[in-house]
């Protein structure tokens, strides 16, 4: 037994003897760097939400939604660790360095997809991964093990995000003009990061004059949703999926198909949430963390619809994936009003008769196993979202959520009235698109779907969620 004990890996397998004896740095330096990492992760999440709506490329919207939530998860892990290192938790609510704040403020002023991808995946995220690598290579891995564990988990996901971003950036840099624009913007942002001593703050701060800051001008963000050139009919509401899936006289397979289209269309919910987050500064961090989880979930639901339609051989980009929900909220509602409407929608989906349980039963009864799995998880997600809404609006309504529903109904009526005077852009309905779509997906003809008689928008009947 004595000889066997000598062969058992030492130090609980954390590291080698050489690394265990590394002097590393002290608690103050560890806290200083980790606080900067947490701040950068938070700002990356906000950078994504600030530009989500105006970014037209569908695939970029999906990635921004996921990466914003992952960055929020990473920030939360680090925000939990920093107070353990003798730093007041309140310090996490402020920028750790004025120069670092300026650098990230410049990044928010990115213009267009090329500059946005350059900022996130060409400059900031690579610098963050490099700073994490330096931290792990310098600190004592046993004395600072909780930090190392968190950073190793964070680094793995940061590298995955970076891998996607590098490929996406390469795709948009195919043109020489785009490449030149990306290079100039990267140089601009690196100058500001250099003035901050890098993301970790350990580098020699640059002493040269900084380029003219874009952040000297007020930030003008556009929260009206955009789609890329593949999409048509984004303001077409001629045959809402809600009418078809709720019509119990229709074949169950057609109703399931309408549900899948409804899921695909759900991209306009993360767009609505992005506007809420970007325009409601100063909230507690747990509000942003929870809402960023919901944002990704809703984007993921859209992705489920995309996957299910692709499994049937459908080119879903040819369908009228409308943006009317997020468009109306962005145009006619304050951020708080959008949140109240979103809350009312989520709560309405909890009913057993016409809620998420019912949607799951439609998928199950249709015999579509993939749709059944997707709607099973969609149902679970929406239960979480209903709880998130209650948690963050409870104080506003003093626990009286009936008042929230009354306000949501009043907002819906107000939006309908505003639309009488300020109508949305109109797309000519794509003739017989549902019949052609359903026939291809189901492999047989279906009866003509009636035109929708829904004239007034309400959070229940016209919501994507």
Number-wise, the strands total: 0
Q: How far apart, in Å, are the first and last alpha carbons?
A: 62 Å
- The number of helical segments is 18
Give the averaged pLDDT, no decimals: 92
The backbone outline, from C-alpha atoms, is globular
Q: Which structural class best describes the helix and strand composition?
A: mainly alpha
Q: Approximately how much beta-strand content do the residues carry? A: under 5%
Radius of gyration: 25 Å
Number of domains: 2
Can you give a write-up of this model?
There is one protein chain. This protein is mostly helical and 465 residues long. The chain folds into two domains: 22-208, Ferritin (Up-down Bundle), CATH 1.20.1260; 241-442. Helix content is 63%, strand content 0%. It has helices at 2-7, 17-20, 27-51, 58-81, 98-108, 112-138, 145-172, 176-195, 241-245, 252-264, 268-278, 285-311, 324-332, 335-348, 356-366, 369-393, 401-421, 433-442. α3 packs antiparallel against α4 (58-81), α3 crosses α11 (268-278) and α11 (268-278) packs parallel to α13 (324-332). The chain is globular. Residues 452-464 have low confidence and may be disordered.
Entry summary:
This protein has 465 residues and is an all-alpha fold. Helix content is 63%, strand content 0%.
Structure characteristics:
465 residues; mainly alpha; Ferritin; 2 domains; disordered C terminus
What layout of secondary structure does this protein have?
Elements: H1 2-7, H2 17-20, H3 27-51, H4 58-81, H5 98-108, H6 112-138, H7 145-172, H8 176-195, H9 241-245, H10 252-264, H11 268-278, H12 285-311, H13 324-332, H14 335-348, H15 356-366, H16 369-393, H17 401-421, H18 433-442
Helix pairs in contact: 3-4, 3-5, 3-6, 3-11, 4-7, 4-12, 5-8, 6-7, 6-8, 10-12, 10-15, 11-12, 11-13, 11-14, 12-16, 14-16, 14-17, 15-16
């Amino acid at each position: 037994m004595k000889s066997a004990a000598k062969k058992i890996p030492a130090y609980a397998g954390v590291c080698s003897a050489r690394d265990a004896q590394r002097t590393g740095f002290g608690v103050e330096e560890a806290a200083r760097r980790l606080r900067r990492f947490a701040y950068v992760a938070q700002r990356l999440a906000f950078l994504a939400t600030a530009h989500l709506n105006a970014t037209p490329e569908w695939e970029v919207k999906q990635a921004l939604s996921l990466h914003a939530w992952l960055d929020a998860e990473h920030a939360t892990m680090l925000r939990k660790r920093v107070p353990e290192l003798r730093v007041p938790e309140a310090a996490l609510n402020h920028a750790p360095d004025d120069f670092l704040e300026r650098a990230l403020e410049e990044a928010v002023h990115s213009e267009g997809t090329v500059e946005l991808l350059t900022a996130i995946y060409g400059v900031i995220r690579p610098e963050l991964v490099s700073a994490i690598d330096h931290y792990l290579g310098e600190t004592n891995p046993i004395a600072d093990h909780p930090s190392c564990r968190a950073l190793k988990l964070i680094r793995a996901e940061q590298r995955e995000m970076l891998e996607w971003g590098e490929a996406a950036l390469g795709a948009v840099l195919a043109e020489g003009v785009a490449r030149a624009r990306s290079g100039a913007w990267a140089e601009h942002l690196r100058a500001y990061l250099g003035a901050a001593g890098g993301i970790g703050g350990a580098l020699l701060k640059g002493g040269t004059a900084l380029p003219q800051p874009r952040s000297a001008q007020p930030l003008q963000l556009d929260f009206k949703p955009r789609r890329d050139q593949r999409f048509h009919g984004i303001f077409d509401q001629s045959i809402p999926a809600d009418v078809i899936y709720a019509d119990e006289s229709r074949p169950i397979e057609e109703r399931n198909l309408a549900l899948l289209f409804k899921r695909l269309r759900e991209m306009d919910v993360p767009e609505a949430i992005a506007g809420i987050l970007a325009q409601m500064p100063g909230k507690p961090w747990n509000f942003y963390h929870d809402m960023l989880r919901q944002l990704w979930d809703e984007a993921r639901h859209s992705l489920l619809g995309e996957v299910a339609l692709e499994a049937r051989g459908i080119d879903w980009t040819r369908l009228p994936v409308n943006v009317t929900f997020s468009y109306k909220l962005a145009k006619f509602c304050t951020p708080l009003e959008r949140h109240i409407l979103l809350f009312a929608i989520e709560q309405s989906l909890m009913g057993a008769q016409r809620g998420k349980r019912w949607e799951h039963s439609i998928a199950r009864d249709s015999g579509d196993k993939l749709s059944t799995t997707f709607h099973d998880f969609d149902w679970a997600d929406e239960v979480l979202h209903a709880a998130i809404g209650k948690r963050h609006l409870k104080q506003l309504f003093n626990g009286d959520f009936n008042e929230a529903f009354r306000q949501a109904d009043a907002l819906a009526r107000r939006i309908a009235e505003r639309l009488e005077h300020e109508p949305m852009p109109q797309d000519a309905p794509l003739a017989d698109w549902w019949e052609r779509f359903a026939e291809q997906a189901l492999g047989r003809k279906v009866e003509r779907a009636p035109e929708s008689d829904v004239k007034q928008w309400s959070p229940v009947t016209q919501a994507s969620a």
